[in-house]
């Protein structure tokens, strides 16, 4: 597919009637494994990308570093790739457009764009975030690509609202405004419980993305509620790191090799997802 066709495919996956499940990855081999398993699209997680490089989340890595990684990921698979670019590595709309140009040139066809600062503790104004969504759309259109914008709403991470009901009201207000500004999907990050998701789904007409955590409603329930897209943030990466920590701890204590699972991939199995040519 061309990049334009990939963008159209990704957009259509949000309205197909089938839940779009996106196990977030942070490197090319993760993307290739998902493609081989039949996933129709691939999504990165900013926290996983940053942590894999030894940095905390929150745009601590350079924009050029992010672009290099998502470029490698986008080139490694044939399916559409959507990248978590946090706040766009930009305070101004001019700088945000520069990021979007780089994202499009990387081969990526979708983004997460959040409205929170300081891990969501401080929210941009609705007007400011709508302007930023519009700027991202304008920059992408210059390339002839309908960039799929997943507008993240950080209201549930903010301590600015006195009650759960007030937080939901803010999330809904922002969702409606962001959709009007040009977002294709709304990502009210935080709650995954059945009651809250049902409320959000009922009150937001645009496609919605839910973060699946250990406490979230099961995937069949989320699909039955009409959720369009589910992502997993840094949880898959952290699960892998937990296993690594367990192995490291066992070897440090001279506990033997039982820490290696019998299901460890063989070199031949791993090779299926690797490029054999030189970089």
Strands in their spatial order, largest beta sheet = 2-3-4-7-8
Model regions low in confidence, pLDDT < 50 over at least 5 residues: none
Please give the domain count: 1
Gyration radius, to the nearest Å?
A: 19 Å
CATH class: Alpha Beta
CATH topology: TIM Barrel
What structural category characterises the helix and strand content?
alpha/beta
Strand-residue proportion: 5-15%
Described by strand count, sense and barrel closure, the largest sheet is: 5 strands, parallel
Distance between the termini: 23 Å
Q: Total strand count, please?
A: 10
Written account of the structure:
There is one protein chain. The chain has 279 residues and is of the alpha/beta class. The chain has a single domain, classed as TIM Barrel (Alpha-Beta Barrel). Strands 2-3-4-7-8 form a 5-stranded parallel sheet. The chain has a 3-stranded parallel sheet with strand order 1-10-9, with no helix packed on it. The protein has a two-stranded antiparallel sheet with strand order 5-6. Helix 2 runs parallel beside helix 4 and helix 6 packs parallel to helix 7. The longest helix is centred in the middle third of the chain and has 18 residues. The radius of gyration is 19 Å and the shape is globular. The two termini are 23 Å apart. The mean pLDDT is 96.
Summary keywords:
279 residues; 11 helices; 3-stranded parallel β-sheet; TIM Barrel; 5-stranded parallel β-sheet; 12% strand; alpha/beta
Topology:
Blueprint: H1 3-13, E1 20-22, H2 28-36, E2 42-43, H3 46-52, H4 63-76, E3 81-84, H5 93-106, E4 110-114, E5 116-117, E6 122-123, H6 126-141, E7 148-153, H7 164-181, E8 185-188, H8 194-203, E9 209-211, H9 219-224, E10 229-231, H10 235-252, H11 267-271
Parallel strand pairs: 1-10, 2-3, 3-4, 4-7, 7-8, 9-10
Antiparallel strand pairs: 5-6
Helix pairs in contact: 2-4, 4-5, 5-6, 6-7
């Amino acid at each position: 597919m061309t990049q334009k066709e990939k963008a159209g495919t990704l957009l259509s996956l949000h309205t197909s009637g089938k839940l779009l499940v996106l196990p977030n990855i942070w490197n090319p081999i993760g993307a290739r494994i998902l493609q081989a398993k039949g996933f129709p699209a691939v999504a990165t997680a900013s926290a996983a990308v940053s942590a894999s490089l030894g940095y905390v989340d929150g745009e601590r890595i350079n924009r050029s570093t992010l672009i290099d990684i998502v470029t490698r990921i986008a080139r490694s698979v044939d399916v559409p790739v959507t990248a978590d670019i946090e706040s766009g590595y930009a305070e101004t709309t001019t700088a945000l457009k520069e990021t979007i140009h780089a994202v499009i040139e990387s081969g990526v066809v979708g983004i997460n764009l959040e409205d929170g600062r300081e891990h969501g503790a401080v929210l941009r104004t609705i007007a400011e975030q709508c302007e930023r969504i519009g700027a991202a759309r304008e920059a992408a259109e210059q390339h002839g690509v309908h960039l799929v914008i997943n507008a993240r709403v950080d209201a549930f991470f903010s301590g600015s609202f006195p009650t759960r009901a007030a937080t939901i009201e803010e999330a809904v207000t922002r969702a409606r405004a962001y959709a009007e500004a040009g977002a294709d999907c709304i990502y009210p990050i935080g709650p995954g419980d059945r009651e809250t998701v049902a409320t959000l789904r009922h009150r937001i007409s645009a496609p919605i993305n839910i973060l699946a955590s250990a406490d979230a409603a099961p995937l069949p329930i989320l699909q039955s509620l009409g959720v369009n897209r589910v992502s997993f943030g840094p949880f898959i990466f952290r699960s892998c790191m937990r296993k690594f920590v367990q192995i490291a701890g066992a070897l440090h204590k001279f506990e033997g090799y039982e820490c290696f699972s019998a299901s460890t991939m063989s070199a031949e199995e791993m090779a299926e997802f690797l490029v054999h040519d030189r970089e």
